[in-house]
Amino acid sequence: MDDLIDAVASTPSALGVAERIQARRPQMSSAMGKIAALLLEHPTAPLELSITELASRAGTSPATVTRFCRLIGYSGYVPLRVGVAADVGRGDVHASWHTDIGRAFDPEDSSHDILHSLLHAHTRSVQATASSVDLEQIDRIASAVATCRHLDIYGIGGSGFMADELQSRLYRIGIDAHAWSEVHAGLASASIQDESSVAIGISNTGRTRETIQMLAQASSSGAFTVALTNSADSPLAAVSREHVLAAAPEQYLQPDDLSAKHSQLFVLDLLYLLIAQQDFARTTTKLAASAMAVLPHRRSVRSRPRPATLGTPSDSSGSEPHV
In angstroms, rounded to a whole number, what is the distance separating the alpha carbons of residues 154 and 212? Predict the structure, then answer.
């Protein structure tokens, strides 16, 4: 690492590694795309892994890594490592902001600019998701969930919050749903599923290893499996029976799961409503029962007493006037 940092001093300034990857991504093969996805998610990986280790982590070969390096403007893996070290050592606060927050925003943007950038990005994300929805597919999934013996939902990090949200809603309407964000517990649950079960894996990139493992285990156990990702070519989609796209056309907010959560939630809202329709009597009965159960824990809405004013009569005890 020290040798790499020392080498940076003799390296001319140029585009950073991430910028080079993004610029050349349309020209990459699917194998190179796996390397690009890995480096964008873990920018310092070349400093920690040998070329063989990085190839293994990306599911490709060392020769493909070398070709990848040449495509983005480096003669080999060592110059790529130097470029990564340069990015790490550059210390540019704006580059750090764009890496950690998102490229759609600048630290100097006004609140008005940020508001409208967010609104535009969210709108595009949801519209792109809606335009790709296969309603026959969603109906099949809703029917399978509504009639299943058991539903597992897998997600890690931000996708885990989405899994929890869907589980909470479906459990209230009588679906035996369980959300898992811890891989050991999730694998244990997946291993005891069968043909009467449904399993849903949620991952923006579709490359979260733990989620892939859990959904793959559920699939091998015979469950009806569904992947919710932004890529039909992802490993998670490959181990599922049905793949649903939650588009994130702009990586406007980092980490990536933040940029995808609104389109994911849109799909989950649609799925929840269609599942609720499957058994209207059960849905309404369960919702009414749960509403009654929590009612005592909600403050009732009462009009506030008007404050006493001069000349307002009071009772003989001197208390506030009755309203």
Answer: 9
